[in-house]
Write a structure and sequence with these properties.
heterodimer; A: 273 residues; mainly alpha; MetI-like fold; 10 helices; B: 266 residues; alpha/beta; Rossmann fold; 6-stranded mixed sheet; 22% strand; binds adenosine-5'-triphosphate; binds magnesium ion
Chain lengths: 273, 266
Amino acid sequence: MSMSTEKPLNQTNKNTIYIPPKRSFSHYVKLLLIVGVVFLLHYWSVRGIEVNPDRISFERTLDFLSRTFPPNWEVTQTVMGAALETLQIAIIGTTGGAILSIPFGFLAASNIVHPTVRVCVRTLLNTIRSIPLILYALFFVVAVGLGPLAGTLATVIYSVGMLGKFYSEAIEAIDPKPVEGILSTGASKLKALRYGIIPQVLPHFIAYTFYRFELNFREATILGLVGAGGIGFYITLYMRSFEYTRLATVTFIILVMVVVIDMLSSYLRKKIT
Amino acid sequence: MTSKKKLIKAEQLEIVYPKRKGSETTPALQDISLTVEEEEFIAVIGKSGAGKTTFLRSLTGFVRPSAGKLVVNDIDVMRTSKKKIYELRRNVATIYQSFNLVERMTALDNALCGRLGYIGNIRGLLGLFPKKDKEFAYRTLVDLGLEDRVHYRVDQLSGGERQRVAIARALVQQPQIVLADEPAASLDISLTKFVLNTLKDLNKQNGLTVLVNLHDIELAKMYATRIIALQRGRIVFDGEPEKLTEDLLEVIYNEYEHGEASKSNE
Ligand SMILES: Nc1ncnc2c1ncn2[C@@H]1O[C@H](COP(=O)(O)OP(=O)(O)OP(=O)(O)O)[C@@H](O)[C@H]1O
Ligand SMILES: [Mg+2]
């Protein structure tokens, strides 16, 4: 036979005839259908957003940019104050969300609770996640009044949607062996949780929380648009009064803070795991 | 022999795992009847899938028997309360093939977990172990030759060192019985002997009762005072190592037979 062991693998049998994969007619019909649907979807969307080449004007863009430059540094102190408020909202919003997410995480983990409980909690978390942050902000502005407290509460709830899910996934991914190891000493389930599960999930919890903090700072910058505190207030203010040089300062400060926070946070995340 | 305390009594024990899709349920263990007395050193042998692990885990209530009777340390494992199971596990320590340690904790903290059965929930959760417990855990690790590894995190230790930490955790429990599930399967021969010698010493000097799952018959014969052989969930041999003949081994490890292997009880 041609299957001699001395022959190197890349020397193939020249007599073997290549048989191409068979593609049926319905295969092409399916392909056509997919292409058709994708095309129609985009046609419909482009119509909807009124894409008009005339409106995309180079001059107007240039004009706008020239009116934002140079940034007006006089407002730095005021804007910085608001930016720090956004940071405070993000810090407390993240920590509050993280604490609240711990019970949700456990209640949504298949290796901890009954499947029915898990489905209920997961559905709740999915619902929380499907509502945009700005809607929570509007709700809390009505509930607790204008100001950063509304923004903070909105951030807390919004964070739970993601962190609760991520925590539960970390819990589901644990190695059950150390847990049995702890239980085998005669420890109660509570102690097994403390010594078998927490050490395994804690680094993941912290990493996810830092990640959520990065997102929260970025997203909290728009809370001020609805009066829920932070730097967003100055975005609307300067936008409405056409003070574009001041808007540039706001943008610059957000940019710098986001970059610094992301760098710090991802550095710390790497340190943990 | 007869005056010794009976630590384990199993009668017609049967264990069936919950059915999985597309597979029929054959009991993992059936018709298991045996007694284990104080100070015995028992090796449980058998092919992979014979039910060795299932048997050991049933003794501390990690798998529930579906029929029969099982009494360990005067506790009816199948009918007792949660509290009693905790107490049972405290007195019956387990050493696992894969160590089952907490990777992100130090050797000392892992060994200290052997005391968890002795302290209350609050103390346990806060990690407030009595000083004498800490000293005991420390000394146990040192006695096992880990003096310069005590404060290392387990994920920085070698396989042999991990297994010694696992042994330390078991010993810190001050158990009456030690169950070891292939404690040396992932170790080289000198470490294997170290582990088994340690268990043998404890058995001889401290009167500890040892049940160890082994796949190596030579080791089983060398260390055990009694061998129990399982095949497809049934006991096919239970007796002194000398009585384990080549024919029987043939039966246990090569499945020619139809289950007519003779059962020789002590
Ligand atoms: N959790 C489980 N769920 C379902 N079936 C299981 C489970 N654990 C073990 N079994 C089955 O029970 C039988 C006995 O398994 P067990 O692990 O006790 O064998 P073993 O003798 O320890 O084997 P090995 O030498 O490979 O460790 C096997 O057929 C196995 O597939
Ligand atoms: Mg096994």
